[in-house]
Design goal:
With 498 residues, the chain is of the alpha/beta class. It folds into two domains: 269 residues, Aldehyde Dehydrogenase, Chain A, domain 1 (3-Layer(aba) Sandwich); 186 residues, Aldehyde Dehydrogenase, Chain A, domain 2 (3-Layer(aba) Sandwich), CATH 3.40.309. It is 39% helix and 22% strand. It has 16 helices and 23 strands. The strands form six sheets. The protein has a seven-stranded mixed sheet with strand order 15-16-17-14-13-19-20, with helices on both faces. Strands 10-9-8-11-12-22 form a six-stranded mixed sheet, with helices on both faces. A three-stranded mixed sheet has the order 1-5-4, with helices on one face. The longest helix is centred in the first third of the chain and has 20 residues. The radius of gyration is 25 Å and the shape is globular. The model has no long low-confidence stretch (mean pLDDT 97). It binds nicotinamide-adenine-dinucleotide. The site of nicotinamide-adenine-dinucleotide (NAD) has 27 residues, from α8 and α9.
Protein backbone atom coordinates (compact mmCIF):
# COMPACT_ATOMS: atom_id res chain seq x y z
CA UNK A 1 0.00 0.00 0.00
CA UNK A 2 1.27 3.50 -0.89
CA UNK A 3 2.47 5.61 2.04
CA UNK A 4 1.86 9.35 2.09
CA UNK A 5 4.48 11.16 4.11
CA UNK A 6 4.81 14.65 5.51
CA UNK A 7 6.75 17.21 3.49
CA UNK A 8 9.41 18.71 5.74
CA UNK A 9 12.46 20.72 4.72
CA UNK A 10 11.95 19.91 1.06
CA UNK A 11 11.62 16.14 1.38
CA UNK A 12 8.79 13.68 1.88
CA UNK A 13 9.20 11.76 5.13
CA UNK A 14 7.14 9.54 7.38
CA UNK A 15 8.81 11.33 10.29
CA UNK A 16 9.26 9.92 13.76
CA UNK A 17 5.80 8.52 14.23
CA UNK A 18 4.74 4.94 14.14
CA UNK A 19 1.12 5.85 13.51
CA UNK A 20 -0.63 5.76 10.16
CA UNK A 21 -4.21 6.16 9.03
CA UNK A 22 -5.83 4.55 6.01
CA UNK A 23 -6.90 6.73 3.09
CA UNK A 24 -9.92 5.25 1.33
CA UNK A 25 -11.26 5.39 -2.18
CA UNK A 26 -14.83 6.58 -1.50
CA UNK A 27 -16.09 5.02 -4.75
CA UNK A 28 -14.99 1.52 -3.81
CA UNK A 29 -14.70 1.73 -0.03
CA UNK A 30 -11.22 0.24 -0.27
CA UNK A 31 -8.11 1.47 1.49
CA UNK A 32 -5.74 2.75 -1.21
CA UNK A 33 -2.94 4.37 0.80
CA UNK A 34 -1.92 5.16 4.34
CA UNK A 35 -0.93 8.54 5.63
CA UNK A 36 1.69 9.13 8.33
CA UNK A 37 0.39 10.94 11.40
CA UNK A 38 2.71 13.59 12.79
CA UNK A 39 4.12 13.60 16.28
CA UNK A 40 5.09 16.75 18.16
CA UNK A 41 8.69 16.05 17.06
CA UNK A 42 7.58 16.06 13.39
CA UNK A 43 5.79 19.36 13.88
CA UNK A 44 8.84 20.78 15.66
CA UNK A 45 11.01 19.67 12.72
CA UNK A 46 8.66 21.44 10.29
CA UNK A 47 8.72 24.60 12.41
CA UNK A 48 12.53 24.47 12.72
CA UNK A 49 12.85 24.14 8.96
CA UNK A 50 10.43 27.05 8.46
CA UNK A 51 12.24 29.21 11.01
CA UNK A 52 15.60 28.58 9.37
CA UNK A 53 14.36 29.44 5.88
CA UNK A 54 12.00 32.36 6.55
CA UNK A 55 14.39 35.30 7.18
CA UNK A 56 16.15 34.79 3.85
CA UNK A 57 12.79 34.43 2.07
CA UNK A 58 11.47 37.61 3.69
CA UNK A 59 14.64 39.41 2.59
CA UNK A 60 14.15 38.25 -1.01
CA UNK A 61 12.61 41.11 -2.93
CA UNK A 62 8.84 40.77 -3.49
CA UNK A 63 9.14 40.47 -7.25
CA UNK A 64 11.51 37.53 -7.04
CA UNK A 65 9.14 35.89 -4.59
CA UNK A 66 6.30 36.53 -7.00
CA UNK A 67 8.21 34.84 -9.84
CA UNK A 68 8.02 31.56 -7.96
CA UNK A 69 4.23 31.83 -8.24
CA UNK A 70 4.37 32.32 -12.01
CA UNK A 71 6.37 29.07 -12.21
CA UNK A 72 4.12 27.34 -9.67
CA UNK A 73 0.99 28.20 -11.66
CA UNK A 74 2.62 26.86 -14.85
CA UNK A 75 3.58 23.59 -13.13
CA UNK A 76 0.10 23.07 -11.69
CA UNK A 77 -1.33 23.61 -15.16
CA UNK A 78 1.20 21.14 -16.57
CA UNK A 79 0.11 18.46 -14.10
CA UNK A 80 -3.57 19.44 -13.98
CA UNK A 81 -5.03 16.17 -15.23
CA UNK A 82 -2.89 14.00 -13.00
CA UNK A 83 -3.64 16.17 -9.96
CA UNK A 84 -7.37 16.13 -10.72
CA UNK A 85 -7.39 12.33 -10.99
CA UNK A 86 -5.44 11.96 -7.75
CA UNK A 87 -7.84 14.34 -6.03
CA UNK A 88 -10.90 12.50 -7.33
CA UNK A 89 -9.52 9.14 -6.24
CA UNK A 90 -9.29 10.29 -2.61
CA UNK A 91 -12.24 12.70 -2.43
CA UNK A 92 -14.70 11.04 -4.81
CA UNK A 93 -15.79 14.15 -6.71
CA UNK A 94 -15.86 13.98 -10.52
CA UNK A 95 -12.64 14.74 -12.38
CA UNK A 96 -14.24 17.82 -13.93
CA UNK A 97 -15.18 19.08 -10.48
CA UNK A 98 -11.69 18.26 -9.19
CA UNK A 99 -10.26 20.46 -11.95
CA UNK A 100 -12.54 23.23 -10.69
CA UNK A 101 -11.19 22.64 -7.16
CA UNK A 102 -7.62 23.05 -8.42
CA UNK A 103 -8.42 25.99 -10.72
CA UNK A 104 -10.16 28.06 -8.06
CA UNK A 105 -7.04 27.59 -5.90
CA UNK A 106 -4.72 28.30 -8.81
CA UNK A 107 -6.44 31.64 -9.33
CA UNK A 108 -5.32 32.67 -5.86
CA UNK A 109 -1.74 31.66 -6.73
CA UNK A 110 -2.09 33.92 -9.80
CA UNK A 111 -3.32 36.68 -7.50
CA UNK A 112 -0.32 36.08 -5.22
CA UNK A 113 2.00 36.67 -8.17
CA UNK A 114 0.74 40.26 -8.03
CA UNK A 115 1.37 40.60 -4.28
CA UNK A 116 4.26 43.10 -4.64
CA UNK A 117 1.69 45.73 -5.55
CA UNK A 118 -0.19 45.08 -2.32
CA UNK A 119 2.93 44.98 -0.14
CA UNK A 120 4.06 48.49 -1.06
CA UNK A 121 2.90 50.18 2.13
CA UNK A 122 2.03 53.84 2.61
CA UNK A 123 4.03 57.05 2.75
CA UNK A 124 3.20 60.57 3.87
CA UNK A 125 5.61 63.26 2.88
CA UNK A 126 5.57 65.93 5.58
CA UNK A 127 3.27 64.38 8.18
CA UNK A 128 4.67 67.02 10.57
CA UNK A 129 7.34 69.71 10.38
CA UNK A 130 10.28 67.96 8.75
CA UNK A 131 8.62 64.63 9.53
CA UNK A 132 7.90 61.83 7.08
CA UNK A 133 5.83 58.84 7.97
CA UNK A 134 5.68 55.44 6.33
CA UNK A 135 3.94 52.16 7.02
CA UNK A 136 5.36 48.81 6.00
CA UNK A 137 3.62 45.47 5.74
CA UNK A 138 6.00 42.89 7.16
CA UNK A 139 5.46 39.12 7.22
CA UNK A 140 4.27 37.48 10.43
CA UNK A 141 7.09 34.90 10.27
CA UNK A 142 5.59 31.42 10.32
CA UNK A 143 1.94 30.94 9.42
CA UNK A 144 -0.10 27.74 9.54
CA UNK A 145 -3.16 26.53 7.68
CA UNK A 146 -5.56 23.76 8.72
CA UNK A 147 -7.84 22.66 5.91
CA UNK A 148 -10.95 20.49 5.36
CA UNK A 149 -11.39 17.40 3.18
CA UNK A 150 -13.82 18.90 0.70
CA UNK A 151 -11.41 21.14 -1.24
CA UNK A 152 -8.00 19.48 -0.87
CA UNK A 153 -6.36 21.74 -3.50
CA UNK A 154 -8.34 24.97 -3.46
CA UNK A 155 -8.28 25.82 0.24
CA UNK A 156 -4.58 25.01 0.82
CA UNK A 157 -3.79 27.22 -2.21
CA UNK A 158 -6.03 30.01 -0.84
CA UNK A 159 -3.93 30.08 2.31
CA UNK A 160 -0.40 29.24 1.31
CA UNK A 161 -0.23 31.50 -1.78
CA UNK A 162 -0.74 34.91 -0.14
CA UNK A 163 1.06 33.84 3.05
CA UNK A 164 4.21 32.81 1.17
CA UNK A 165 4.10 35.67 -1.35
CA UNK A 166 4.03 38.05 1.62
CA UNK A 167 7.33 36.61 2.89
CA UNK A 168 6.17 34.05 5.44
CA UNK A 169 7.06 30.40 5.82
CA UNK A 170 3.98 28.21 5.92
CA UNK A 171 2.98 24.97 7.60
CA UNK A 172 0.00 23.22 6.06
CA UNK A 173 -2.02 20.63 7.96
CA UNK A 174 -4.39 19.28 5.31
CA UNK A 175 -7.27 16.89 5.88
CA UNK A 176 -5.99 13.42 6.70
CA UNK A 177 -8.78 11.97 4.54
CA UNK A 178 -7.40 13.20 1.18
CA UNK A 179 -3.79 14.22 1.85
CA UNK A 180 -2.02 13.37 -1.44
CA UNK A 181 -2.70 16.50 -3.48
CA UNK A 182 -1.41 18.92 -0.80
CA UNK A 183 1.90 17.02 -0.72
CA UNK A 184 2.08 17.10 -4.53
CA UNK A 185 1.51 20.85 -4.43
CA UNK A 186 4.38 21.27 -1.98
CA UNK A 187 6.66 19.30 -4.33
CA UNK A 188 5.60 21.49 -7.24
CA UNK A 189 6.35 24.61 -5.20
CA UNK A 190 9.92 23.40 -4.70
CA UNK A 191 10.20 22.62 -8.41
CA UNK A 192 8.95 26.17 -9.06
CA UNK A 193 11.90 27.56 -7.10
CA UNK A 194 10.53 27.93 -3.57
CA UNK A 195 13.37 27.41 -1.07
CA UNK A 196 13.01 24.31 1.08
CA UNK A 197 11.44 24.99 4.45
CA UNK A 198 9.13 27.74 3.20
CA UNK A 199 6.30 25.26 2.66
CA UNK A 200 6.01 22.25 4.94
CA UNK A 201 3.13 19.80 5.17
CA UNK A 202 2.31 17.74 8.27
CA UNK A 203 -0.55 15.28 8.53
CA UNK A 204 -2.76 14.27 11.41
CA UNK A 205 -5.84 15.14 13.41
CA UNK A 206 -6.53 16.87 16.71
CA UNK A 207 -3.13 16.32 18.33
CA UNK A 208 -1.13 17.96 15.55
CA UNK A 209 -3.71 20.77 15.31
CA UNK A 210 -3.29 21.35 19.05
CA UNK A 211 0.47 21.37 18.55
CA UNK A 212 0.06 24.12 15.92
CA UNK A 213 -2.33 26.17 18.03
CA UNK A 214 0.04 26.13 20.98
CA UNK A 215 3.36 26.46 19.16
CA UNK A 216 5.14 29.60 20.27
CA UNK A 217 6.96 30.03 16.94
CA UNK A 218 3.79 30.05 14.83
CA UNK A 219 2.36 33.56 14.60
CA UNK A 220 -0.87 33.19 12.62
CA UNK A 221 -3.35 30.40 11.98
CA UNK A 222 -5.96 30.11 9.26
CA UNK A 223 -8.56 27.38 9.60
CA UNK A 224 -11.36 26.11 7.38
CA UNK A 225 -13.63 23.27 8.51
CA UNK A 226 -16.76 22.61 10.54
CA UNK A 227 -18.15 25.19 12.97
CA UNK A 228 -17.46 23.36 16.27
CA UNK A 229 -13.79 22.92 15.35
CA UNK A 230 -13.61 26.48 13.95
CA UNK A 231 -14.82 27.83 17.31
CA UNK A 232 -12.28 25.69 19.14
CA UNK A 233 -9.41 26.72 16.85
CA UNK A 234 -10.37 30.39 17.15
CA UNK A 235 -10.50 30.32 20.95
CA UNK A 236 -7.39 28.17 21.43
CA UNK A 237 -5.17 30.00 18.94
CA UNK A 238 -6.26 33.37 20.36
CA UNK A 239 -5.56 32.16 23.90
CA UNK A 240 -2.02 31.40 22.72
CA UNK A 241 -1.59 34.90 21.34
CA UNK A 242 -1.93 34.11 17.66
CA UNK A 243 -3.62 35.98 14.89
CA UNK A 244 -6.44 33.67 13.83
CA UNK A 245 -9.20 33.40 11.27
CA UNK A 246 -11.45 30.34 11.41
CA UNK A 247 -14.10 29.60 8.81
CA UNK A 248 -16.85 27.16 9.69
CA UNK A 249 -19.88 25.36 8.31
CA UNK A 250 -22.89 26.60 6.41
CA UNK A 251 -26.57 26.27 5.66
CA UNK A 252 -27.05 28.25 2.49
CA UNK A 253 -30.54 29.41 1.53
CA UNK A 254 -31.69 30.14 -2.00
CA UNK A 255 -34.84 32.25 -2.27
CA UNK A 256 -36.98 31.75 -5.36
CA UNK A 257 -39.33 34.64 -6.06
CA UNK A 258 -42.58 34.07 -7.98
CA UNK A 259 -41.22 36.06 -10.95
CA UNK A 260 -38.06 33.91 -11.29
CA UNK A 261 -37.45 31.73 -14.34
CA UNK A 262 -38.40 28.39 -12.72
CA UNK A 263 -36.49 26.23 -15.20
CA UNK A 264 -33.28 28.18 -14.64
CA UNK A 265 -33.85 28.25 -10.88
CA UNK A 266 -34.33 24.47 -10.88
CA UNK A 267 -31.12 23.95 -12.90
CA UNK A 268 -29.30 26.16 -10.41
CA UNK A 269 -30.66 24.18 -7.45
CA UNK A 270 -29.65 20.86 -8.96
CA UNK A 271 -26.05 21.96 -9.51
CA UNK A 272 -25.72 23.86 -6.23
CA UNK A 273 -27.58 21.29 -4.11
CA UNK A 274 -26.20 18.04 -5.46
CA UNK A 275 -22.89 18.98 -7.12
CA UNK A 276 -19.95 17.37 -5.27
CA UNK A 277 -22.65 15.34 -3.43
CA UNK A 278 -23.54 18.45 -1.43
CA UNK A 279 -20.10 18.48 0.18
CA UNK A 280 -19.44 22.16 -0.44
CA UNK A 281 -19.58 24.94 2.13
CA UNK A 282 -21.27 27.01 -0.59
CA UNK A 283 -23.77 24.27 -1.54
CA UNK A 284 -27.41 25.32 -1.45
CA UNK A 285 -29.08 23.10 1.13
CA UNK A 286 -32.29 25.08 1.67
CA UNK A 287 -34.58 26.25 -1.16
CA UNK A 288 -37.08 28.90 -0.10
CA UNK A 289 -39.80 29.40 -2.70
CA UNK A 290 -42.04 32.39 -2.02
CA UNK A 291 -45.71 31.50 -2.38
CA UNK A 292 -47.41 28.10 -2.69
CA UNK A 293 -47.56 28.28 -6.47
CA UNK A 294 -43.80 28.95 -6.72
CA UNK A 295 -43.13 26.02 -4.37
CA UNK A 296 -45.27 23.63 -6.41
CA UNK A 297 -43.62 24.75 -9.64
CA UNK A 298 -40.07 24.42 -8.35
CA UNK A 299 -40.70 20.94 -6.91
CA UNK A 300 -42.26 19.86 -10.21
CA UNK A 301 -39.20 21.19 -12.07
CA UNK A 302 -36.73 19.56 -9.66
CA UNK A 303 -38.13 16.03 -9.67
CA UNK A 304 -37.35 15.01 -13.27
CA UNK A 305 -33.96 16.66 -13.03
CA UNK A 306 -33.13 14.62 -9.93
CA UNK A 307 -34.28 11.45 -11.68
CA UNK A 308 -31.89 12.21 -14.55
CA UNK A 309 -28.84 12.84 -12.33
CA UNK A 310 -25.98 10.49 -13.18
CA UNK A 311 -24.39 9.14 -10.04
CA UNK A 312 -21.16 7.22 -10.34
CA UNK A 313 -17.44 7.02 -9.68
CA UNK A 314 -15.11 9.79 -10.83
CA UNK A 315 -13.51 7.34 -13.27
CA UNK A 316 -16.78 7.31 -15.27
CA UNK A 317 -16.67 10.57 -17.18
CA UNK A 318 -20.46 10.62 -17.48
CA UNK A 319 -20.86 10.91 -13.68
CA UNK A 320 -22.36 14.16 -12.41
CA UNK A 321 -22.23 13.28 -8.73
CA UNK A 322 -19.82 11.00 -6.88
CA UNK A 323 -19.88 9.36 -3.46
CA UNK A 324 -19.59 11.10 -0.09
CA UNK A 325 -16.31 10.99 1.78
CA UNK A 326 -16.75 8.17 4.34
CA UNK A 327 -19.10 5.42 5.45
CA UNK A 328 -19.67 7.42 8.65
CA UNK A 329 -20.79 10.39 6.58
CA UNK A 330 -23.11 8.18 4.52
CA UNK A 331 -24.65 6.76 7.71
CA UNK A 332 -25.05 10.24 9.20
CA UNK A 333 -26.85 11.49 6.11
CA UNK A 334 -29.20 8.48 6.14
CA UNK A 335 -29.98 9.10 9.83
CA UNK A 336 -30.78 12.75 9.14
CA UNK A 337 -33.11 11.78 6.27
CA UNK A 338 -34.84 9.40 8.68
CA UNK A 339 -35.19 12.19 11.23
CA UNK A 340 -36.75 14.44 8.57
CA UNK A 341 -39.46 11.87 7.93
CA UNK A 342 -40.03 11.33 11.65
CA UNK A 343 -40.30 15.07 12.27
CA UNK A 344 -42.96 15.52 9.61
CA UNK A 345 -41.22 16.72 6.43
CA UNK A 346 -42.42 15.29 3.10
CA UNK A 347 -39.75 13.14 1.45
CA UNK A 348 -40.30 13.77 -2.28
CA UNK A 349 -37.21 11.89 -3.47
CA UNK A 350 -35.44 9.32 -1.28
CA UNK A 351 -31.75 8.91 -2.08
CA UNK A 352 -31.07 6.23 0.49
CA UNK A 353 -30.45 2.66 -0.43
CA UNK A 354 -28.69 3.45 -3.70
CA UNK A 355 -26.25 0.77 -4.81
CA UNK A 356 -24.12 0.82 -7.92
CA UNK A 357 -23.08 -2.38 -9.60
CA UNK A 358 -19.38 -2.97 -9.04
CA UNK A 359 -19.28 -0.28 -6.33
CA UNK A 360 -21.41 -1.92 -3.66
CA UNK A 361 -18.98 -0.95 -0.90
CA UNK A 362 -18.64 2.64 -2.11
CA UNK A 363 -20.06 5.55 -0.12
CA UNK A 364 -22.73 6.50 -2.63
CA UNK A 365 -25.82 8.34 -1.46
CA UNK A 366 -28.52 9.26 -3.95
CA UNK A 367 -30.02 12.76 -4.02
CA UNK A 368 -32.87 13.40 -1.58
CA UNK A 369 -35.49 16.14 -1.76
CA UNK A 370 -37.67 17.22 1.17
CA UNK A 371 -40.73 19.46 0.98
CA UNK A 372 -42.58 21.15 3.86
CA UNK A 373 -39.46 21.47 6.00
CA UNK A 374 -39.69 23.79 9.00
CA UNK A 375 -37.03 25.65 10.96
CA UNK A 376 -37.52 23.37 14.00
CA UNK A 377 -36.52 20.17 12.19
CA UNK A 378 -33.02 18.67 12.49
CA UNK A 379 -32.66 18.50 8.70
CA UNK A 380 -32.99 22.30 8.74
CA UNK A 381 -30.85 22.97 11.80
CA UNK A 382 -27.95 20.62 11.03
CA UNK A 383 -25.39 21.08 8.30
CA UNK A 384 -26.05 17.78 6.48
CA UNK A 385 -23.08 18.08 4.10
CA UNK A 386 -24.60 15.57 1.72
CA UNK A 387 -26.97 15.47 -1.28
CA UNK A 388 -30.12 16.49 0.60
CA UNK A 389 -32.11 19.55 -0.44
CA UNK A 390 -34.79 20.92 1.88
CA UNK A 391 -37.65 23.08 0.65
CA UNK A 392 -38.98 25.52 3.24
CA UNK A 393 -42.11 27.24 1.92
CA UNK A 394 -42.35 30.96 2.69
CA UNK A 395 -45.50 33.06 2.29
CA UNK A 396 -43.77 36.35 1.54
CA UNK A 397 -40.39 37.75 0.61
CA UNK A 398 -40.07 39.18 4.14
CA UNK A 399 -40.65 35.70 5.63
CA UNK A 400 -37.99 34.22 3.33
CA UNK A 401 -35.53 36.96 4.25
CA UNK A 402 -36.25 36.53 7.98
CA UNK A 403 -35.70 32.76 7.76
CA UNK A 404 -32.33 33.31 6.10
CA UNK A 405 -31.35 35.96 8.62
CA UNK A 406 -32.46 33.97 11.67
CA UNK A 407 -30.33 30.99 10.62
CA UNK A 408 -27.18 30.79 12.76
CA UNK A 409 -24.95 30.29 9.72
CA UNK A 410 -24.11 33.07 7.26
CA UNK A 411 -21.76 31.75 4.59
CA UNK A 412 -23.58 32.12 1.27
CA UNK A 413 -27.08 32.84 0.04
CA UNK A 414 -28.83 33.53 -3.25
CA UNK A 415 -32.01 35.01 -4.62
CA UNK A 416 -33.58 34.16 -7.96
CA UNK A 417 -35.78 36.94 -9.31
CA UNK A 418 -36.28 39.23 -12.29
CA UNK A 419 -36.99 42.19 -10.02
CA UNK A 420 -34.03 44.51 -9.44
CA UNK A 421 -35.58 46.22 -6.45
CA UNK A 422 -36.09 42.95 -4.58
CA UNK A 423 -32.60 41.74 -5.46
CA UNK A 424 -31.06 45.00 -4.32
CA UNK A 425 -33.02 44.98 -1.08
CA UNK A 426 -31.93 41.40 -0.40
CA UNK A 427 -28.25 42.11 -1.03
CA UNK A 428 -28.36 45.17 1.23
CA UNK A 429 -30.24 43.64 4.17
CA UNK A 430 -29.25 39.98 4.41
CA UNK A 431 -26.71 39.15 7.17
CA UNK A 432 -24.70 36.68 5.10
CA UNK A 433 -21.14 37.12 3.80
CA UNK A 434 -21.54 36.11 0.14
CA UNK A 435 -24.68 36.85 -1.84
CA UNK A 436 -25.73 35.62 -5.29
CA UNK A 437 -28.32 37.34 -7.47
CA UNK A 438 -29.43 34.64 -9.90
CA UNK A 439 -26.06 33.02 -9.08
CA UNK A 440 -26.47 29.97 -6.81
CA UNK A 441 -22.85 29.47 -5.73
CA UNK A 442 -21.46 33.01 -5.36
CA UNK A 443 -17.81 32.22 -4.65
CA UNK A 444 -15.96 35.52 -5.22
CA UNK A 445 -13.02 35.69 -7.65
CA UNK A 446 -9.45 35.72 -6.34
CA UNK A 447 -9.05 39.51 -6.17
CA UNK A 448 -12.21 39.99 -4.10
CA UNK A 449 -12.34 37.86 -0.94
CA UNK A 450 -14.12 34.87 0.57
CA UNK A 451 -15.73 34.73 3.98
CA UNK A 452 -19.01 34.15 5.77
CA UNK A 453 -20.72 35.84 8.71
CA UNK A 454 -22.21 34.58 11.97
CA UNK A 455 -21.32 30.95 12.86
CA UNK A 456 -19.61 30.52 9.47
CA UNK A 457 -16.56 32.58 10.40
CA UNK A 458 -14.67 33.60 13.53
CA UNK A 459 -11.92 36.17 13.69
CA UNK A 460 -11.12 38.91 11.26
CA UNK A 461 -10.31 39.33 7.57
CA UNK A 462 -11.36 37.04 4.73
CA UNK A 463 -9.57 34.45 2.64
CA UNK A 464 -7.67 35.71 -0.44
CA UNK A 465 -7.91 39.15 -2.05
CA UNK A 466 -6.45 42.19 -0.29
CA UNK A 467 -7.69 40.85 3.05
CA UNK A 468 -5.34 37.89 2.82
CA UNK A 469 -2.29 40.11 2.40
CA UNK A 470 -3.41 42.02 5.51
CA UNK A 471 -3.95 38.78 7.43
CA UNK A 472 -0.51 37.40 6.63
CA UNK A 473 1.38 40.63 7.36
CA UNK A 474 1.56 43.14 10.16
CA UNK A 475 1.89 46.86 9.93
CA UNK A 476 4.89 48.77 11.16
CA UNK A 477 4.73 52.56 11.00
CA UNK A 478 7.88 54.65 11.03
CA UNK A 479 7.96 58.35 11.96
CA UNK A 480 11.24 59.92 10.76
CA UNK A 481 12.92 63.31 10.91
CA UNK A 482 16.46 64.42 10.29
CA UNK A 483 18.66 66.77 12.33
CA UNK A 484 17.62 69.91 10.41
CA UNK A 485 14.01 69.29 11.48
CA UNK A 486 14.77 68.83 15.20
CA UNK A 487 14.40 71.89 17.47
CA UNK A 488 16.92 72.41 20.24
CA UNK A 489 15.87 71.43 23.75
CA UNK A 490 13.74 68.71 25.29
CA UNK A 491 10.03 68.48 24.44
CA UNK A 492 7.80 67.48 27.34
CA UNK A 493 4.41 67.89 25.75
CA UNK A 494 2.85 64.87 24.07
CA UNK A 495 3.43 65.38 20.31
CA UNK A 496 0.41 67.06 18.69
CA UNK A 497 -0.38 68.85 15.44
CA UNK A 498 -1.44 72.15 16.97
P1 LIG B 1 -13.53 19.18 10.08
O1 LIG B 1 -13.88 20.33 10.95
O2 LIG B 1 -13.87 17.82 10.53
O3 LIG B 1 -11.94 19.17 9.81
C1 LIG B 1 -11.25 20.31 9.40
C2 LIG B 1 -9.80 20.20 9.84
O4 LIG B 1 -9.75 20.15 11.27
C3 LIG B 1 -9.10 18.96 9.34
O5 LIG B 1 -7.79 19.31 8.95
C4 LIG B 1 -9.11 18.03 10.53
O6 LIG B 1 -8.01 17.16 10.57
C5 LIG B 1 -9.07 18.98 11.71
N1 LIG B 1 -9.77 18.46 12.89
C6 LIG B 1 -10.75 17.51 12.91
N2 LIG B 1 -11.16 17.31 14.18
C7 LIG B 1 -10.45 18.13 14.97
C8 LIG B 1 -10.43 18.40 16.37
N3 LIG B 1 -11.24 17.75 17.22
N4 LIG B 1 -9.58 19.33 16.84
C9 LIG B 1 -8.77 19.99 16.00
N5 LIG B 1 -8.74 19.78 14.66
C10 LIG B 1 -9.56 18.87 14.15
O7 LIG B 1 -14.16 19.49 8.65
P2 LIG B 1 -14.23 18.54 7.37
O8 LIG B 1 -15.22 17.44 7.62
O9 LIG B 1 -12.85 18.16 6.92
O10 LIG B 1 -14.81 19.56 6.29
C11 LIG B 1 -16.17 19.84 6.15
C12 LIG B 1 -16.57 21.07 6.93
O11 LIG B 1 -15.80 22.20 6.49
C13 LIG B 1 -18.02 21.48 6.68
O12 LIG B 1 -18.57 21.90 7.90
C14 LIG B 1 -17.91 22.64 5.71
O13 LIG B 1 -18.99 23.54 5.72
C15 LIG B 1 -16.67 23.29 6.19
N6 LIG B 1 -16.09 24.14 5.16
C16 LIG B 1 -16.17 25.49 5.34
C17 LIG B 1 -15.66 26.34 4.39
C18 LIG B 1 -15.71 27.82 4.56
O14 LIG B 1 -15.01 28.52 3.86
N7 LIG B 1 -16.51 28.34 5.46
C19 LIG B 1 -15.05 25.80 3.24
C20 LIG B 1 -14.98 24.42 3.10
C21 LIG B 1 -15.50 23.59 4.08
Amino acid sequence: MRTIGHFIDGVETTGNGAEFQDVFNPATGEGQARVALATQADLDAAVASAAAAQPQWAATNPQRRARVFFNFVALINRDMQELAELLSAEHGKTVDDARGDILRGLEVSEFAAGAPHLLKGEFTDGAGPGIDMYSMRQPIGIGAGITPFNFPAMIPLWMLSPAIAAGNAFILKPSERDPSVPVRLARLAIEAGLPKGILNVVHGGKSVVDGILQHDQIGAVSFVGSTPIARYVYATAAAHGKRVQAFGGAKNHMIIMPDADMEKAADALIGAGYGAAGERCMAVSVAVPVGEETADKIIAALKPRIDRLKIGPATDLASEMGPVITQASKDRIAALVESGIAQGATLVVDGRGLTLQGYEKGYFVGPSLFDNVTAEMDIYKEEIFGPVLSVVRASTYEDALKLTMDNPYGNGTAIFTRDGDTARDFAARVNVGMVGINVPVPVPVAYHSFGGWKASAFGDLNQYGTDSIKFWTRTKTVTARWPSGIKDGAEFQFPTMK
